[in-house]
Every structure is written in structure tokens, then in C-alpha cells.
Amino acid sequence: MRQIKSKLHDLKGETMQKMNLLLIILMTSSFLAFDVYAMESDEKDRDKARYVATVYLNSESDSEEEENEEEKNLYTVDLTGPITLLGGGYAKGKFKLISEDGKNEISYASASLKAEVVGFESQDLPGISTLNPLAPLPKSIKFGSSYKKIRYVFQYEDQNYEDEVVDTFSTPYQHRAEWIAHKLTLEDQAHHESRFTLQLKVRLEDGALYTASELAKTLKHRGGNIGPQLPGKLYYNGKTVSLRRYRQKEWIVPRAQGQALQSYSWPLKDVEEAVPTHQNSKIAFVEVIPILGERVPALDKEYRGDYDNPPATLPLPYRKGKLASKYLIFSDGKDIFSPKITHELWERNGWRVGFGIASYNYKSKVEFLSVADVPNNRKLEEGLYRLFSINEKKGKRIEKWRRLGDKLLDIEIKVPLGVSSIPGLMTYYVESWK
Fold it and tell me: Are 249 and 265 within 8 A, CB to CB?
């Protein structure tokens, strides 16, 4: 029994020595912090910590393998021969692969690389700009040639290589010249010109025809007879309104020999005058009033243009906005006037829109009462003003007037109680408006 105990004691001592030696090795390593973490973690965390440690211990060798693999796949690529298009988005070509350190060069020929034509490099062609689109192309002129520009992709050692190059190894492709006459549009008629394009085309080895270069050219139309004056059109330019009167002018389109004569009529603005509802007046302010249920343009500029004449009266329910107030005055910077206000319904191309229009003339001039306290020596800055509010304070009636438009301006006019700053202006209160 003593011998058994002695052997167990010796075995226990030997085991403890091995454990101590293992502990010393671990303590001298760079992962001492890991062991402390593992002792404080549960069994699952200890397994995770051991796995992390293994990754750390092996990371150096793995990193070396990755670096070797990257070095193995890093090449610069030079084109060493023509890229021949095969059709269907494929081509064949010859390349030289140069390692990053420049020590290794590999000749590589790809029989099936992905390729597409992305452009052409053409030489300058003097004299082309002087050509007449309506005359036959002269046979004495050589229209030059182009090299094709290719975007290619190929794979080598599981690595993709992609680039765009001008293929100067292939023989330059000779141009085929052709004039293209564009269809006459309303915009062309508005500018009184015809558009042409000289296309220089090449046929590549895949059989496809490409446009290598283009030259745009325009020819002006020749003016002809001018007709009688036409009924005017209402016009809105985005800021003010007017009545435009037109005449029709004939324009003749240039033609080649043997072609039929082509002409068109285009309105020629003759005079511009006040709209019918504001004759002998100057327009002071205009606002657009969209009609419920009608097409609303995305931008205000789409309201600009001609409208049918004469205008109609805007129905009462639509008379809203800044000009809906009964009390408005206009200042030209020197005098003040009682403006004329109309709410009109204009129509064009089958849709309708409302316009609020304010104008003035010198017959509608008014004056402030002599007892009125008006700032700036009784001179208002130019603009249309709306009575915004009325208050009474310290025995005075205080009228606040607000200028309409992009640059708002508030002014206060003080008068004795029981009177208004302008004769005939009744005492009332206007709620604030947005």
C-alpha cells in the first residue's frame, strides 16, 4: 500500500512539473493576455479564445502565402499585336505581361477575349468643313482613316485584366463619307435653318459598320414674302403680359439640284401692345392662378408663350391669391396710384389657366392725406402694395402695407383715429395671409 502511494505521489509530482513547464512556456509567449482572458471566460469563450490564438499563431505563414499569391498575379499588360474582332463581343489578340518587379515577361495570346469597340482615333481632315451638304461629295477628297479603340477583358492565372487601348497594330480603316439630312422640325423652323451631318464610317473585320467621326453643319433658310397682319395673341413671358400682333413670313428651305421646292410660313412679330383689358395702362403686377382640374405645368416657365385672344373672365371661385384684396395701391417710386385689377381666364392648346393682372395709368393717381405720417418723405419704393393690417395705438390708426412680389417690404403709415391714409379707404382689418 505504501509503495502504491509512493508511486502515485511520484506520478503526481512528475505531472505537476510538466504542467509548470507548460505554464512557463505560455507565460513567456506573446499571448499571456489571452490565457488570462480564457481563465475568466466560460467554457464556450475558452474554445473561442483558443481558436483566436491559433489564428494568431498561424497568421504570419498565411500572410506570407497571400503575399506570394498576390505577387504571382500582379502584371502590367502591353498590347503587342492587333486585336481582331471575331463578332459576338469577342476578339483575339496578343499581349505581353510584365511582372511588377520587371524581372518576368510573358508572351500571351488570347483566342477568345471579351472586347467591344468604344471609339475611334481619327486624323484631322482639312477642307471637310467647307463641303456643301447639298452637293455630291467630291471624289478628289480622301476622307482619311481611323484606328479603333477597344475595351478588352481577359483572364490569366485566375486574374482579370481589363483596359482600353487604341489598336495601332491593325491597319487603319478607310472612311466612307455620307451626308445625312435631318428631318425639318418646329425648332429648325423657329431658327430658320436645316441641319446636316457628315458621317465618316468604317467597316471592321467583324463585318459591322461603325461611325468613326461626325461633322455637323447647318444651312440658313431664305426669307420670302410677308403676309398681312393677323389677329393678336395674348402673351405671357414669365413676368408680364402683352398682346402680340403677327404677320406670316414665308421661308424657303435650301434644296439640292432636282429636289422639289419646300417652304413654310412662320409668325413674324409685328407689334407688341397692352392686353385688351388694360389698354392705355402699364402692367404693374401679374400672378398665375392654376385652374383646378387643368394640367399644371411642372415649372412656371411652361406657362410662358402665346394664348388665344380675347380672354375670358375668371370665375369668382378661382379669384384667389395676392390680388384678391380690395385695397391695393401702386407706387412708381414717386407717386401712388389706384390700380386696375382683372382676373382673366386664358386658353391655349386645349387647357386653361388664370391670370391676375394689375395695371395703372396717370388718371388713377391718388395722394395720402396731408396729416398722414408716411416714412421716407412720403415716397414709397416702387411696387404694388396691399393693405395688410390696421391697428389702433396711442390715439393713432396704424396701417401696415406690404409690397407684393419677390422682395417683400412692410411699411407703417400713421393717421389720426377715424380717418384713413388715403381718402375713401374704409376702416377695416385684414387678417395676415401667407
Answer: yes
Residue 287 · residue 254 · CB < 8 Å: no
pLDDT in tens, 379-390: 999 999 999 999
3-class DSSP assignment, residue 196 = strand
CA distance 55 to 5: 43
**Rounded to 5, what percent of the chain is helix, strand, coil?**
20, 45, 35
pTM above 0.70, yes or no: no
Q: What angle do CA 57, 63, 64 make, to 5 degrees?
A: 110
pLDDT at position 270, please?
87
**pLDDT value of residue 51:** 28
Which residues lie below 8 Å from residue 121, measured CB to CB, with a gap of 6+?
Answer: 146, 147, 149, 166
Find where cell 502565402 sits: 65
**CB contact at 8 A, 237 and 308:** no
**What are the b/e assignments for 145-159, b being 16+ CB within 10 Å?**
bbbbbbebebeeeee
Peptide bond into 133 cis (omega under 30): no
Do 312 and 276 contact (CB within 8 A), yes or no?
no
Which residues touch 156 (CB under 8 Å, ≥6 apart)?
A: 75, 97, 108
Distances in whole angstroms, Cα of residue 76 to Cα of each of 102, 107, 108, 207: 9, 12, 12, 31
Check residue 124 and give its pLDDT. Answer: 65
Cell of 367: 395722394
Range of weakest confidence among 6-15, 31-40, 80-89: 31-40
AA identity, residue 43: E
Look-up of cell digits 413674324: 268
Q: Where are the domains of the chain?
A: 2-61, 76-124+142-220, 225-363, 367-416
Q: Are 344 and 277 in contact (CB under 8 A)?
A: yes
Question: How is 356-408 classified by DSSP, letter by letter?
Answer: EEEEE-GGGEE---TT-B-HHHH-PPSEEEEEEEEEEETTEEEEEEEE-SSS-
- Which grid cell is 234? 395674348
Which residue bears the cell 395701391? 329
Grid cell listed for 407: 422682395
Rounded-to-integer distance, Cα 298 and Cα 295, Å = 9
Residue 209: alpha-carbon gap to chain centroid: 33
φ, ψ (nearest 5 deg) of residue 249 = -115, 135
